[in-house]
Structure formats: C-alpha cells, structure tokens
Specification:
about 35% helix; 8-stranded mixed sheet; globular; alpha/beta; about 220 residues; homodimer; Rossmann fold; two-stranded antiparallel sheet
Chain lengths: ~220, ~220
C-alpha cells in the first residue's frame, strides 16, 4: 500500500518507519523541500521511504496519516489542497491541544466540534477516520510493549474507511477485538478531549508508555 | 463519619446506601421537604439514614458528596449556602454534560474551567475533591464487580481532603494503588471531559458496567 504521512515529527517518523517495515511505500510530507528531518528519515528507511511536500505526500498515499501538530493541521491540509485528498482515507492522528497557557492544556476546538470534523469539512471528498491519537508514538506501533492488551478507538462516518484503518491497525499489532468503533466522526470530540486526561496520567505516572484497557463486569463481557 | 449527600437520584441513593452499609450516618438533601425519593431511601436504609434540605445535608456532613446533575449543581450549592460547607470536604461526583442537542453530549463548562472549580469558587472555605465521576453508580460502590481492578482518579487542591477521600474510596473497595491523584483541582477538567468518552463507550459496549484500567509498559511499572 502507498501511505502519505503529513508531518516530520516523532509521530510521523515512528509511524512512517513502522509502515515501511510492514512492506508499504511511504512518502513523508513537509511544508517545503528540502527538509532535513524528512530527508534524514527517508535516508534511514530505505527505498520504500521518500520525501515530498504536503501536497505530494497526500497525492502519493492511498491512505494519508495526519501526524502534524493539531494546532497546525488545518493550515497543512489547506496548503496541500483538497484535490490531493480526493477519494483518500485520511487518518487523523493529531491532537488539537493548546499549551500556550501551560498545564493543563486546553482543547483548541470549540465544544461540539473536533479537529477531525474540521479536517473532514475541508476535505469533503475524503474519508476522515480519527485513530491513534490516544497513545504515544512508540505505543502506536508496538502495543504489545504494554503489560496487557489495551484499547484503541476509531471514529468516522465511512464504514469502508474504518475497515481499512482497522486492517492497518491490526498490521501494527492492535488486535481487532480491542479496536473499538465509537461510531461517526463526531465521536472524535471525545477522543480529542480524552487526551487531556492522557496528559494528566503522563504527569501522574511519569511515563508516556501506557494506555487504557476497558474492563467490563464479569457478567456483561 | 457523618456524610451529606446532595441529590436524590441513582448516584445519591447508591452512594448513600453504601455509606450507611459501611457504618456511616448519612443525610440525603433535596431542594425541599417532604421529598418522596429521599424519604423512601431513608425508610429503606435504617436509622443511620435521614433526610434534609440541601442546606441541612451539607451542614450535617463532615464530608459532603455532590450527587446532583451537573447542570444543576451550582444552583444547588447556592441554595444550600456557602456557610453550610465551611471547613467541609466536598466530593464532586457530578458531570456537567449537556444532552440538550442529543448525542454526543457537550461539556457544559467553558474550556479552561470545570464544574469542580466552579463549585470551589462558590465555596472558598470548603475543600473540593473531584472523584467518582468517571464510573456508573453501581461501579462506584462495587469496583470488584469488574473483571480486573480498574483506576479511579482524584483531583483537588487540598492534600488532606484528598487523603480523606482516598480513605473513603478504600472503604468502598477502591485499592489505594489504583486511586490516581492527578494533582490540583484544575485536573478536574480532564476528568469531566473524559466522561464524553465514557458515554461513547457505553454506547459502543451496550453497558454501563465498565471502567478503564491504566496499563503501563512492562519496563516502566
């Protein structure tokens, strides 16, 4: 599969490397070229790894992963241009958190909205799926590093797109019975809001290497 | 210990009954008297269970549990009057969720604020602790009903008050190593925001009988 990765930070680099390792071709997109971080990433990841602009990465991918900082994601998508995303599955991994006033961060989207829905409105001909935003990069690609299987959440309006993303998550090590479909893309609001608790748990545990596991009652499982 | 319970709904009735069962005296407060739900609750729970107004319940308790619907909690506290809460520990169990536009619900507080902080501002001489708002009533009082130990979160500005609440939680069955102190009361923002995900999980699982367990990496535990 061809994957476009928007963003050159730790999330994009980690997911991009994992996708190459799984046998996919990956184009990492940045605002402009040459870009030192993306070129270094491509050099380290072999022939299946290449670089491009945001527009080139989006056009390259059958599936496009938004791994930019949430407060910049809309500008990135606008720069890439909506036509590059036509018919694509867009996995929104980003978190719209505003740390400008320190801890705890605030959500940078209004109540009743989410970054994922904002992106979907910019890209009416793409299928946006919110996923992977609730864990740190290293856990995204190695869920087995945690002591027990944990849960990952997906939200999106297109069932076929969610199926594709769930398949990709399974390749990354997320067992299908632990990928919880929360319904339409409006559920992304809760996934983005959850990350405030994630930040609190990071501070409380002193680690980013964790995730939550949904535990049911003995009788209801 | 003497406990005031504000609210006559399922949360107040369940917590109130559990506290009586643990040997505490409980006064359940309502807007006005006579109040049929609180009287029926008191009749069913023996001599240690009594009824009162919101003000009487607050004045009665060494610890006061806000079990009202979050969108009404500030009016309840104002009706009770701040002097009734002087020196008290106030456990804010409520969730400020607005279902007026259906699912998913929206938070009824502004970004950078929480119901718990609003209550604290109304009650400067009380010590507000956010706790128990992240699970359904029956799980609050019987965490052992779930398949594994799960996590409960507390937030508050007064360490002594958090210690008292953690002791009460231990009486209810929450092991201390699973009660995570997220810091000051501003962390209540994340606990209230999390409940949007809780609602999504309720819809996704078809059950209210669940909670989350924080799973660390093998090496970081």
């Amino acid at each position: 599969m061809r994957c476009g990765v928007l963003g050159t930070g730790i999330v994009g680099q980690t997911l991009g490397a994992a996708l190459v390792g799984l046998g996919h071709e990956v184009c990492m997109g940045s605002r402009s070229l040459p870009n030192e971080p993306s070129q270094a990433w491509a050099d380290a990841n072999g022939d299946a790894a290449r670089v491009g602009t945001f527009a080139e990465a989006a056009a390259f991918g059958d599936i496009v992963l938004n791994c930019t900082a949430g407060v910049h994601s809309l500008a990135v998508v606008e720069q890439a241009g909506s036509t590059a995303f036509t018919g694509k599955v867009v996995v929104d991994v980003a978190n719209p958190l505003d740390f400008s006033e320190g801890f705890p961060p605030r959500l940078a989207v209004a109540p009743g909205d989410s970054l994922a829905e904002q992106i979907q409105r910019l890209l009416p001909d793409a299928h946006v799926v919110k996923a992977l935003n609730t864990v740190t990069a290293s856990v995204m690609v190695d869920p087995g590093s945690l002591e027990q299987p944990t849960d990952l959440f997906v939200a999106g309006d297109d069932e076929g797109a969610k199926d594709q993303v769930t398949t990709l998550l399974a390749e990354l090590g997320w067992s299908r019975d632990r990928v919880r479909d929360l319904g339409g893309l409006s559920a992304a609001r809760s996934l983005e809001a959850y990350v405030m608790l994630w930040v609190g748990l990071m501070q409380s545990t002193g680690s980013t290497q964790f995730n939550v596991r949904v535990v049911m009652s003995g009788s209801s499982t």
